[in-house]
Amino acid sequence: MRSGRPKTYRVILTDEQREQLEAFGRSRSLPHGLARRARIVLLAAQGLPSSSIAAQLGVSDPTVAQWCKRFIADGIDGLYDLPSGGRPRTYDDDEVAGLMQCALDERPADGTHWSVRSFAEASGVSKSTVHRYFNLFGVQPHRTRTFKLSTDAFFVEKVRDIVGLYLNQPDHALVLCVDEKSQVERWFGIITQRAIKRSSFKSVSELTARINRFVEQYNENPVAFMWTATADSIFEKLTRLSKLLCGTAH
């Protein structure tokens, strides 16, 4: 009995679609199913038959067919899960938006930020629903989005004096900045960008060994952190940030 020609799907990608699908396929934070669907479409765009795609990705032929057809019909939007059936939503969009706005803008009477339990008790919504909405919208009440600026009457003068010392050190003098947090953050940034990012590790010991090797190599030719920001550039950033926080950026 002849099996016929392998089934293929005519999938044509724009550069933007290909770039987005490749990002989906590499992602470790997106749902596994979405990343796999992206890889299905990418392989289909190469002209591979569905049976080859299924074997390569460990899925069935109908699964390959489903997501190729969804992409051809709806583009990348078609790769997302459709809303499931079941009982109607308890809260409509306006009510959900109001709950999330309350979580972000208001504080509990006996604390500095909401927890799932405290917000559920105050709003009358179940803890499971609050937890689901917090995760869905990325709401993290324990992480504030405020910026505190010094109220010192001589703030501007002190900034200019201190920055001036960093940029133009006096002769026969040593200027020290006791700000271990900034130094540590900068150092971790270097390690992340040059030793960890775009790499994968199978164990903590493997990660530790990679960091230790980088530190040893870096210390062979260490580079001191040099202050480069001027007082004017700092004030310009503060002005932009203030306008952004006040909603007057434009």
Can you give a write-up of this model?
It is a single chain. The chain is an all-alpha fold. The chain is built from 11 helices and no strands. It has helices at 15-26, 32-45, 50-57, 61-74, 93-105, 116-123, 127-137, 155-167, 180-196, 204-220, 231-246. The chain is extended.
* Overall average pLDDT: 76
Strand content: under 5%
Reading the helices and strands in chain order gives HHHHHHHHHHH
Low-confidence stretches: none
End-to-end CA span: 71 Å
Number of helices: 11
Domains (count):
3
Can you summarize the main beta sheet?
none
Alpha carbon gyration radius: 27 Å
| Total beta strand runs | 0
Q: What would you call the structural class?
A: mainly alpha
What would you call the shape? extended
Helical content stands at: 55-70%
